[in-house]
Design a protein that fits this description.
Number of domains: 2
Number of helices: 16
CATH class of the largest domain: Alpha Beta
Strand content: 5-15%
CATH topology of the largest domain: Rossmann fold
Structural class: alpha/beta
Number of strands: 10
CATH superfamily of the largest domain: NAD(P)-binding Rossmann-like Domain
Distance between the termini: 52 Å
Radius of gyration: 19 Å
Length: 334
């Protein structure tokens, strides 16, 4: 029996606790939620009514707001918290981690202040105590559909192939297929970038544009993602796989996408602050856009869609003007 701790009591953290209880091996699973009241309610009622209503949390899962309890003896630590809070949570939990633990980041975003990927944040935080073994879980996976047991395929990226194989065996299940990948950089960048493109896709739909526009947006968005990822050293094939194209298509078209929803509401003319005020879950693309654009500029990579998304989100530009700016760019070869 393996002991698994999941840090983050939102929809994805809760879904993962359900998924890991269905694996071929029996696990002792702890789910940590920052909100003590929510954790108590989840433990008692066996449901996360705030973030994943209608999905039963198995008895094998212990829900707690106490990091010491959640991490006691944990051999696998899964991070499913928003990127903006990741460093703080890992630092607070640092005294309770085992040096032998394997860390699995399931957060799709960049740290806003530093532009660092989550695997780098984990490594920095753990450095004073030990050198962390880190893997990344990403790919097309809406929490609700995965929790329902609908077939889902994702990527488990780790530079250590032995660790990747171990995690495939431990975390994979009948309806949760894990594909190993050694390109941690590419998988993490793709998971962060696709959220920004999804806001653009939502904005196009909110403006009333149809399939022509969406198809072009997804295709050119993928080209932007690939340009930056390969410039930073990622493998091109990663962007055409589950973590890249797969997750991009899901997030740009699926009705459960939080980032697409933000874009749609912006396209309809609503203010960002009002949209976010009415959301329970985090839309990572809102906070990743600026970090992503900074990375692109630092590396001399052109990302016109990301640039316009950032202008809509943080500079007050209208979605209509942003679309016009993209379409009015000089003609060029594909």
């Amino acid at each position: 029996m393996s002991r698994i701790a999941i840090l983050g009591g939102g929809s994805w953290g809760t879904a993962l606790s359900i998924l890991f209880s269905r694996t071929r091996e029996i696990h002792a699973i702890s789910l940590w939620a920052r909100d003590a009241e929510l954790a108590h309610e989840m433990q008692e009622k066996r449901e996360n009514a705030a973030y994943l209503r209608g999905q039963s949390i198995p008895e094998a899962v212990t829900v707690t707001a106490d990091l010491r309890v959640a991490l006691s003896g944990a051999e696998i630590v899964v991070g499913a918290m928003p990127s903006a809070h990741a460093r703080e949570i890992y630092q607070t939990a640092l005294p309770f981690f085992r040096a032998q633990a394997i860390f699995v980041s399931a957060t799709k975003g960049l740290e806003p202040a530093t532009h660092l990927r989550m695997s780098k944040v984990i490594a920095q935080v753990m450095q004073p105590r030990f050198q962390a073994k880190v893997a990344v879980l990403s790919g097309p996976s809406f929490a609700l559909e995965a929790a329902r047991g609908e077939p889902t395929a994702v990527v488990l990226a780790c530079e250590d192939e032995g660790v990747a194989r171990l995690l495939q065996e431990k975390l994979g299940g009948p309806a949760f297929r894990l594909y190993a990948n050694s390109d941690v950089l590419g998988v993490e960048l793709a998971g962060a970038m696709k959220n920004v493109i999804a806001i653009a896709a939502g904005a196009c739909q909110g403006l009333g544009f149809g399939a022509n526009t969406l198809a072009a947006l997804i295709t050119r968005g993928l080209a932007e993602m690939a340009r930056l990822a390969t410039a930073l050293g990622a493998k091109p094939e990663t962007l055409s796989g589950l973590a890249g194209l797969g997750d991009l298509v899901l997030t740009c078209t699926g009705t459960l996408s939080r980032n697409r929803y933000v874009g749609q509401e912006l396209g309809k003319g609503r203010l960002l602050k009002d949209i976010l005020a009415g959301m329970k879950s985090v839309a990572e693309g809102v906070w990743t856009a600026d970090a992503l654009l900074s990375l692109a500029r630092e590396n001399g990579v052109e990302m016109p869609i990301a640039e316009q998304v950032n202008a809509i989100l943080h500079e007050g530009k209208s979605p209509t003007a942003a679309i016009r700016a993209i379409m009015d760019r000089p003609q060029k070869r594909e």
